[in-house]
Write a structure and sequence with these properties.
With 237 residues, this protein is an all-alpha fold. The protein has a single domain, classed as Orthogonal Bundle (MetI-like fold), CATH 1.10.3720.10. Helices cover 79% and strands 0% of the residues. The model has no long low-confidence stretch (mean pLDDT 88).
Amino acid sequence: MTFSIWGLLSVGPEGWGLALLSAAGVTVSAALCGFLLGGVLGIGGAFLKLSQWTGLRVVGQFYTTVFRGVPEILVVYLFYFGGSVVFTRVMNLGGWPGFYSLPAFVIGVIAVGIVSGAYQTEAFRSAYLRLDRGQIEAGASCGMPTMLLLRRIIAPQTLRFALPALGNIWQSALKETALLSVIGLTELLRQAGVAAGSTRQPLLFYAVAALMFLIIGRVTGLALKRMEYHLARPWRR
């Protein structure tokens, strides 16, 4: 039994090890790209919710309310089917008839990114509200330009305060990639399902997939902890 298990998990021609590692790479890539897209959307969303203009605050509130309240699997389906319809219409209007669809990876990144961005919006907004306004006023009184003030004072401290929440959001984005199997993306869970069906060893391959998710989450979590420690160093006594 031990030999057969190692044979099934080997990287040789009869093993599934290489396919699982490749799928794990797709999982990490989709999660990372979605998380980075969510970071951009989160900064923009935080700007909207902190704006003095009521209309902008309403837009930011609408974004976070909708995408934090709708199940992630529905967001994936909406972008998978809706994205194909919109893309096809745009191409048809441009003179290219037929049906068009975006790659599953792109759709998955967009879906994960938009959901992640809704949560990152709140993380950045809360972190910004924790800033010491005295430091910002002192920098402005010293004649710091806005961009220098942002780079030296606002951005580093906002990221420092937001990082613990961002770590949790990253773990959620990593797990949400498992939902992308429903749109045909060969990520870790889908590849484990294919291997389980081919070998009739579902317990083995799903257990391996769970272990790989745990390892990826643990390693990336430690990296974020290290970043948090580094950013907090100037304020430690």
